[in-house]
Amino acid sequence: MTHDLRRLLSNLAALVSLIAAALAAYPAGAAAATSPSTASTACQLSSARGQIQHVINVQFDNTHFIRDNPNVPSDLEQMPNLLNFIEGNGVLLTNHHTPLISHTATDILTSFTGVYGDRMGVPVSNSFRYYVPGGSTNTGVSFAYWTAPIFDPSGATTDNTYNMLTADGQNAPAPWVPYTRAGCDVGQVATANTVLENTAIDIPTVFGSGSAEAGEVTSNPGQAFADFVGIGVHCALGSAMCSSANNGKADLLPQEPNGYSGYMGLFGNKYVAPVISPSGPVTDLDGNVIQDPQGHIGFPGFDGMAATVSLSYVAAMQEHGIPITYAYISDVHDTHPNGPAYGPGQAGYVAALAAYDRAFGQFFQRLAADGINKTNTLFVFTADEGDHFVGGPPSPAGCDGVTTPCTYSQIGELNGNLTGLLATQQGVTTPFKVHSDDAPTVYLDGQPARESMTARSFERATNLLTAHNPITGNTDTLTKFLADPVEMRALHMITADPKRTPTFTLFADPNYFLLAGLPNCNSPCVTEVPKFAWNHGDVQSDITTTWLGMVGPGVMQAGLDNTTWSDHTDIRPTLMLLLGLRDDYSHDGRALTEDLSGWARPAAVLKSGTYARVARMYKQLDATVGQFGLATLRASTRAIASGSATDDSSYTDIENQLISLIDQRNALAGQMIAALEGAEFNAQPISISKAQQLIAQGQSLLEQANALAS
Asked: Rounded CA gap, 591 and 582, in Å?
């Protein structure tokens, strides 16, 4: 998550003026921990044989199964305690994918909810531009609590639109709700938007602008961040865990389908720690008190969530009666918190992976001593996305990192001044804003229509940009793909809030990170930046391909599955199916029944002999990096790059064909997911004739999309 604005939220002390001074500091001390038996006996999961009593869901940041250097063992290969646990007891899916844009916010939230960014409001990376009166734009950060409004770090906005937004403009359904309705308390460890992410808007949203917590933000901002951000528990109705005696706070979801009143939560380490660690501060797996680099005891910041920290929180929660736990683990590619980046096989990188491996060994041993294991626990492990390494060759040649450390004379992404490149190469000085990225979203001032001359000439100029690569010495074409609002709709990147819609998205050469700059190149318009060397956001396979591991009752002990095509949206319906729970909405993903034991598959799935064929066609049609999405992206690029100031008929023709194809895809995908979920959750088998019809229609659309792309 090297570029994630989430990382910068730790340094938001300058924003404390946004929060009014309030009551005196909250009194120290809290109630004793709720006993595990009290908290866990009410949890009523409905798995097929009633075996699942715990859920442990762990999401890594940028951790790879595929080798980034063929000589250097991959991240997972260097964590055998985890890799062997998954492959020896369950299944590891390696043909697993991200949504777009392939970034931490969208990727994690997609895996939590089972829907793409267009149905939860955060499709454009970890931050997004949005239009404000007067034709200008502000920056919204995707990392904010579930019910918070748009978070503008500048403090300039008065836009109270929900950050998490459904396609019909409502606050998105929260992923912990099926669990708490089943009587289960849910622990959240640094997991995106299910915990407080910042002290600027999340504190007023949850505690109130006149609260003691808001007062602490003003008087002691560093401690307030450690106290309230990053850790949380969402409790079942009436659970003693989140009682007022434990400093519980109303867990408000005012627009949750089917209602959600009376539920409580614990927000922040200050209130969670006394419940899960009643004898003192929470410690990591090695017994060290968890604190941030400045010595504030409590949440150490998102960069501080190493495996030994995050897994210790999970174990403590499970041991103190919180049977459902979700956790985030920070990446090992960088020297946290300020860099520089490591290359594959570099000594610091290998040492960090060894520490992670040791932490997983301790974690599984501790859980086993607690009686929490593969016989009664559903384990889910995944990584938000892959990355593209930017750097020169390692030295010595053939180094493997483990026995022979690798070093790099050149390492670091190539930062490109998009403003300067456009001005010097194409003479374009049209005012614009950009969300800086490997796949930057561009917002032309005034929000011109996509087919306007202003937008079209700017897009054509962008397509022609080149850059001198200081690592290879080559001249690179910067733009690989282009998507305007037509294609972004195909890629599930258009939200219900039109103010968040960019003019277009540029998917760049993955070695480059493009940002706004000065309209000249007196200083180089392309520079190598050693602080960052792992690019993501783009559409290349090393970025969009990741992995998914599952272990527990109902999961086949299949070892490696490198054939089943899946993406992050499939995780949620698979969990709900295994646990016998239901969401209040349909998913964009489908249950991965191929990797489930026969007795864990619904009868209607077993009766539908063509269920898997429909599911496979559905994924290629609807997934952002499935065949349809990638084909239409190629067609979109061809359209946007075409035409001239006097004749734009080619653009219009291709775009009209894309609109028609996308409309047909959406309608067919809706029929497909209804049929799949009918079999998964509603005991409705898919008839052979219906399956054949859906598959034939899907194949026809894929053929049309590929033809248009060429």
From this structure: 12
